[in-house]
Prior knowledge:
Strand content: 15-25%
CATH topology of the largest domain: Cobalt-precorrin-4 Transmethylase, domain 1
Order of helices and strands: EHEHEHEHEHEHEHEEHE
Number of domains: 2
Oligomer: single chain
Shape: elongated
CATH superfamily of the largest domain: Tetrapyrrole methylase, N-terminal domain
CATH class of the largest domain: Alpha Beta
Distance between the termini: 52 Å
Number of strands: 10
Strand order of the largest sheet: 3-2-4-1-5
Helix content: 25-40%
Largest sheet: 5 strands, parallel
Amino acid sequence: MEKGILYIVATPIGNLEDITLRALRILKEVDLVACEDTRVTRKLLSHYSIETQAIVYHQHTKDDKIQKIIEQLLEGKNVALVTDAGTPGVSDPGNILVASAIENEIVVLPIPGASALASIISVAGIDMQQFSFLGFPPHKKGRETYFKKVAASEIPVIYYESPHRVIKNLEMLQNFAPEKKIILGRELTKMFEEVVRGEISEISAYFVENPGKVKGEFVIVVY
């Protein structure tokens, strides 16, 4: 029996128009869509009148459920893996399913598209020929070590941040790297998207003074 294909499909990071024609076709044609949150993904699918079955796959998915997805692929079914926003495999557990598919000699194909990482690079306006991406900072343990690493980097560092910790973590970064500057993207591609640039202390003060803007997803470049 011919095995199915695992498609790694990028979805919009905010604006639903930021999905490729190819991604829409794949999402319509596959047998299953594995996603972080079926409520989020069904909103996207229904917007484009796609009726493909959506199943849950996230960081808490147990091995037996991963194996069931692999079994579907081994039986010849095609599966699309999506995340709630952006490209799977970046700060999400997509790599675990991909690794399992590779181990089972299942073809894995990328369907590229929106990415917060690529989006902030495109508007940074600085030399990004070399950079380091560190994902999300640790919540507690290892947080200080993480930001010391950011501060010590000789090339730009990009990381994702949550609204609950952005100010506290900027203050910690300021202590370790007062001479560095940042480019901060917030709610990229959405109605209230914003990119701010400047000294770490300036950006931190900006959000302290404007608490209503401490919402959504943040992506930060430190240089």
